[in-house]
Design brief:
The chain is built from five helices and nine strands, in the order E-E-H-H-E-E-E-H-E-E-E-E-H-H. The protein is of the alpha+beta class.
Protein backbone atom coordinates (compact mmCIF):
# COMPACT_ATOMS: atom_id res chain seq x y z
CA UNK A 1 0.00 0.00 0.00
CA UNK A 2 1.37 3.41 -1.01
CA UNK A 3 0.29 6.84 0.18
CA UNK A 4 1.67 10.11 -1.21
CA UNK A 5 0.65 13.49 0.17
CA UNK A 6 1.75 17.02 0.94
CA UNK A 7 1.83 17.30 4.75
CA UNK A 8 0.46 20.44 6.33
CA UNK A 9 2.94 22.96 7.67
CA UNK A 10 4.62 21.37 10.71
CA UNK A 11 7.91 20.26 12.20
CA UNK A 12 7.96 16.55 12.99
CA UNK A 13 10.35 15.59 15.76
CA UNK A 14 11.91 12.16 16.19
CA UNK A 15 12.37 10.22 19.40
CA UNK A 16 15.97 11.39 19.81
CA UNK A 17 14.73 14.99 19.72
CA UNK A 18 12.13 14.25 22.40
CA UNK A 19 14.90 13.07 24.76
CA UNK A 20 16.97 16.23 24.22
CA UNK A 21 17.27 18.84 26.97
CA UNK A 22 16.31 21.51 24.44
CA UNK A 23 13.18 19.77 23.16
CA UNK A 24 10.61 22.05 24.79
CA UNK A 25 12.47 25.12 23.54
CA UNK A 26 12.73 23.62 20.04
CA UNK A 27 8.98 22.94 19.96
CA UNK A 28 8.24 26.50 21.11
CA UNK A 29 10.55 27.95 18.43
CA UNK A 30 8.94 25.85 15.70
CA UNK A 31 5.49 26.98 16.81
CA UNK A 32 6.61 30.64 16.86
CA UNK A 33 7.73 30.24 13.23
CA UNK A 34 4.27 28.96 12.28
CA UNK A 35 5.19 25.26 12.26
CA UNK A 36 3.18 23.29 14.82
CA UNK A 37 5.39 20.64 16.47
CA UNK A 38 4.46 16.97 16.06
CA UNK A 39 6.25 13.89 17.41
CA UNK A 40 6.70 10.92 15.07
CA UNK A 41 7.70 7.31 15.68
CA UNK A 42 9.76 6.81 12.53
CA UNK A 43 12.98 8.49 11.45
CA UNK A 44 15.65 10.44 13.26
CA UNK A 45 15.80 14.19 13.84
CA UNK A 46 13.47 17.11 13.15
CA UNK A 47 12.03 17.55 9.64
CA UNK A 48 10.14 20.60 8.37
CA UNK A 49 7.06 20.10 6.23
CA UNK A 50 6.15 23.34 4.51
CA UNK A 51 2.85 22.43 2.90
CA UNK A 52 4.73 22.08 -0.40
CA UNK A 53 7.03 19.20 0.48
CA UNK A 54 6.00 15.76 -0.76
CA UNK A 55 5.84 12.81 1.63
CA UNK A 56 5.29 9.14 0.94
CA UNK A 57 4.67 6.03 3.00
CA UNK A 58 4.94 2.55 1.55
CA UNK A 59 3.72 -0.42 3.59
CA UNK A 60 5.30 -3.69 2.49
CA UNK A 61 5.03 -7.25 3.80
CA UNK A 62 8.08 -8.82 5.45
CA UNK A 63 9.01 -12.29 6.61
CA UNK A 64 10.67 -11.18 9.83
CA UNK A 65 11.57 -8.19 11.97
CA UNK A 66 15.09 -7.77 10.61
CA UNK A 67 14.51 -9.15 7.13
CA UNK A 68 15.93 -7.10 4.29
CA UNK A 69 16.00 -3.69 6.01
CA UNK A 70 19.09 -2.67 4.06
CA UNK A 71 17.71 -4.08 0.81
CA UNK A 72 14.50 -2.05 1.17
CA UNK A 73 16.47 1.13 1.87
CA UNK A 74 18.74 0.49 -1.11
CA UNK A 75 15.82 -0.27 -3.45
CA UNK A 76 13.85 2.84 -2.52
CA UNK A 77 16.87 5.16 -2.69
CA UNK A 78 17.90 3.68 -6.06
CA UNK A 79 14.36 3.85 -7.47
CA UNK A 80 13.90 7.47 -6.41
CA UNK A 81 17.36 8.55 -7.53
CA UNK A 82 16.68 7.06 -10.97
CA UNK A 83 13.20 8.61 -11.05
CA UNK A 84 14.50 12.08 -10.19
CA UNK A 85 17.28 11.75 -12.78
CA UNK A 86 14.65 10.81 -15.38
CA UNK A 87 12.95 14.11 -14.50
CA UNK A 88 16.19 15.96 -15.31
CA UNK A 89 17.58 16.31 -11.78
CA UNK A 90 21.30 15.89 -11.13
CA UNK A 91 21.01 13.92 -7.89
CA UNK A 92 22.91 11.14 -6.16
CA UNK A 93 22.68 8.96 -3.09
CA UNK A 94 24.24 10.54 -0.03
CA UNK A 95 24.03 13.47 2.27
CA UNK A 96 25.99 16.68 2.81
CA UNK A 97 27.55 17.25 6.25
CA UNK A 98 25.28 18.67 8.96
CA UNK A 99 22.05 18.06 7.03
CA UNK A 100 18.66 18.03 8.73
CA UNK A 101 17.51 14.60 9.96
CA UNK A 102 20.93 13.09 9.22
CA UNK A 103 21.02 9.54 7.94
CA UNK A 104 22.70 7.34 5.39
CA UNK A 105 19.56 6.87 3.28
CA UNK A 106 19.30 10.28 1.66
CA UNK A 107 19.30 11.78 -1.81
CA UNK A 108 21.10 15.03 -2.53
CA UNK A 109 21.86 17.44 -5.32
CA UNK A 110 25.21 16.53 -6.87
CA UNK A 111 27.58 18.88 -4.97
CA UNK A 112 24.57 20.41 -3.21
CA UNK A 113 21.98 20.03 -0.50
CA UNK A 114 19.78 17.18 0.64
CA UNK A 115 16.52 16.83 -1.29
CA UNK A 116 15.06 13.68 0.29
CA UNK A 117 15.46 11.44 3.29
CA UNK A 118 14.17 7.90 3.72
CA UNK A 119 13.17 6.22 7.00
CA UNK A 120 11.86 2.80 7.91
CA UNK A 121 9.81 1.30 10.71
CA UNK A 122 9.71 -2.50 10.83
CA UNK A 123 7.27 -4.82 12.58
CA UNK A 124 7.11 -8.61 12.55
CA UNK A 125 5.12 -8.92 9.31
CA UNK A 126 5.37 -5.48 7.69
CA UNK A 127 7.66 -2.53 7.12
CA UNK A 128 6.73 1.10 6.60
CA UNK A 129 9.22 2.83 4.31
CA UNK A 130 8.65 6.57 4.28
CA UNK A 131 10.30 9.70 3.06
CA UNK A 132 10.03 13.39 2.42
CA UNK A 133 11.09 15.38 -0.66
CA UNK A 134 11.78 19.11 -0.89
CA UNK A 135 10.72 20.14 -4.38
CA UNK A 136 11.06 23.91 -4.83
CA UNK A 137 13.24 26.80 -3.69
CA UNK A 138 10.63 28.54 -1.49
CA UNK A 139 10.44 25.36 0.58
CA UNK A 140 14.22 25.44 1.07
CA UNK A 141 13.97 28.96 2.53
CA UNK A 142 11.08 28.00 4.82
CA UNK A 143 12.90 24.84 5.95
CA UNK A 144 16.07 26.75 6.80
CA UNK A 145 14.13 29.51 8.58
CA UNK A 146 12.49 27.08 11.00
CA UNK A 147 15.16 24.37 11.36
CA UNK A 148 18.11 26.67 12.05
CA UNK A 149 16.80 27.76 15.49
CA UNK A 150 15.21 24.36 16.18
CA UNK A 151 18.48 22.48 15.66
CA UNK A 152 20.33 25.10 17.70
CA UNK A 153 17.92 24.52 20.60
CA UNK A 154 18.40 20.75 20.27
CA UNK A 155 22.19 21.14 20.27
CA UNK A 156 22.50 19.39 16.90
CA UNK A 157 24.80 20.65 14.13
CA UNK A 158 22.90 22.05 11.15
CA UNK A 159 24.18 23.75 8.00
CA UNK A 160 21.53 25.81 6.18
CA UNK A 161 23.50 25.21 2.96
CA UNK A 162 22.84 21.48 3.33
CA UNK A 163 19.15 21.96 2.41
CA UNK A 164 18.44 21.50 -1.29
CA UNK A 165 15.48 20.83 -3.54
CA UNK A 166 14.61 18.95 -6.69
CA UNK A 167 14.42 22.19 -8.68
CA UNK A 168 17.97 23.14 -7.58
CA UNK A 169 19.12 19.89 -9.19
CA UNK A 170 17.44 20.74 -12.50
CA UNK A 171 14.26 18.79 -11.82
CA UNK A 172 10.68 20.05 -11.76
CA UNK A 173 9.47 22.62 -9.24
CA UNK A 174 5.94 21.17 -9.25
CA UNK A 175 5.08 19.07 -6.18
CA UNK A 176 2.33 17.39 -8.21
CA UNK A 177 4.75 16.27 -10.90
CA UNK A 178 7.21 14.99 -8.31
CA UNK A 179 4.45 13.12 -6.46
CA UNK A 180 3.24 11.47 -9.67
CA UNK A 181 6.78 10.32 -10.46
CA UNK A 182 7.23 8.87 -6.96
CA UNK A 183 3.91 7.05 -7.26
CA UNK A 184 4.84 5.59 -10.64
CA UNK A 185 8.23 4.41 -9.35
CA UNK A 186 7.07 2.83 -6.10
CA UNK A 187 3.73 1.38 -7.16
CA UNK A 188 5.10 -0.73 -10.01
CA UNK A 189 7.67 -2.62 -7.93
CA UNK A 190 7.04 -6.04 -6.38
CA UNK A 191 7.55 -5.60 -2.63
CA UNK A 192 7.41 -9.10 -1.14
CA UNK A 193 10.74 -10.13 0.44
CA UNK A 194 10.91 -13.15 -1.86
CA UNK A 195 10.50 -10.92 -4.96
CA UNK A 196 13.69 -8.97 -4.36
Amino acid sequence: MLRIWRPVRQVTFGRRDARSDGFETAKRLAHQKGFPPVERRVGGRAVAHTGGTVAFALAVPTTGIRTDITDRYDRVVQLLTTTFRDLGAAVKRGEPPNAYCPGSHSIRVVDGGKVAGIAQRVRRDAALVSGCLTVCRRDVAATVDVLDPVYDALGVAFDPGAVGCLADAGGPSSPGRAAAAIEAALSTEPWHDSDQ
